[in-house]
Design brief:
The structure holds two protein chains of two kinds. By secondary structure, chain A is mostly beta strands. Chain A is 0% helix and 32% strand. The N and C termini of chain A lie far apart (36 Å). By secondary structure, chain B is an alpha+beta fold. Chain B is globular and about 60 Å long. Classes of the chains: A mainly beta, B alpha+beta. At the A-B interface, strand 3 of A face strand 2, strand 3 and strand 4 of B. Strand 3 of chain A pairs antiparallel with strand 3 of chain B, so a sheet runs across the interface.
Chain lengths: 56, 195
């Protein structure tokens, strides 16, 4: 299982992510969240958040 | 074989205590920055238990309260992080499938009527602590894996308290977990015998 594999993940834009609640003005593009399809949230699962950092 | 039912109570003070159980606790695996992109990887544990000593948690709370009303006090008793251990669903754990969603295949324990499983249920395996609650607690039959302990920021834990707190564990049961965790951490590892 490779959660970074684009073929097995889906993108969710502007999802409310607790870690990103603060200082979002440091970013200029939406948050991209990668998570497995069909997650069973009764077992530990992995969430990867990527976001572009503003230039300059 | 009768399993011990772990007694619990509901804490109303909003103060984190040793052996409080929370749901959906996030562990940050890494944060990295490359090519103008920041990437954060988190593991979300459906259930987790606080293992930091109760006195340290209480002193942290009291110190933070004092700091709110006076600038003359110091932050000597502030905690930086809190020790947490995952609480795994026992059936998933028994099958070795509890971490399959993060790419880890674990050792199956086997049938409930076999010795390895019985030992875990009777808390005779140092690494694990078996938990079974009465029906009022929305946590399934579970096991704490002391080897998988991690830490979370104390402010993060306080911030999720209202929404993620499930229950607290009664004193005798709490002290047993604390003692077994400290025994696990302080065990002496001897070299494997030469074959």
């Amino acid at each position: 299982m490779n959660v970074k594999d684009e073929n097995t993940t889906r993108d969710i834009e502007n999802k409310d992510i607790s870690l990103m609640d603060e200082k979002t003005d440091n970013f200029d593009e939406p948050i991209i969240v990668h998570e497995e399809e069909n997650i069973n949230r009764n077992k530990p699962w992995r969430l990867i958040i990527r976001r572009k950092i503003a230039n300059g | 074989m009768a399993e011990v039912i772990t007694k619990t109570y509901q804490e109303s003070s909003l103060v984190v205590n040793q052996c409080d159980i929370f749901k959906n606790v996030e562990f940050v695996e890494y944060v990295k920055e490359a090519d103008s992109t920041i990437e954060i990887s988190k593991i979300i544990f459906p259930y987790a238990i606080v293992l930091t000593q109760a006195c340290d948690l209480m002193q942290d709370f009291m110190a933070r309260e004092k700091n709110k009303v006076s600038e003359k006090v110091n932050q000597d008793k502030f905690l930086i992080s809190v020790i947490i251990a995952p609480v795994y669903n026992f059936e998933d754990f028994r099958l070795g499938e509890h971490l399959q969603q993060i790419g880890l295949k674990m050792q199956p324990i086997g049938s409930r009527n076999k010795t390895p499983c019985k030992n875990i249920i009777q808390n005779e395996n140092k690494r694990y602590h078996y938990l079974k609650f009465d029906d009022s607690i929305p946590v399934p039959e579970s096991v704490i894996d002391f080897k998988h302990y991690f830490t979370v920021n104390i402010n993060y834990l306080n911030s999720i308290y209202k929404e993620h707190y499930i229950c607290s564990i009664d004193s005798l049961y709490r002290e047993l977990i604390s003692q077994r965790f400290s025994n696990f951490l302080s065990r002496i590892g001897l070299p494997d015998p030469i074959e």
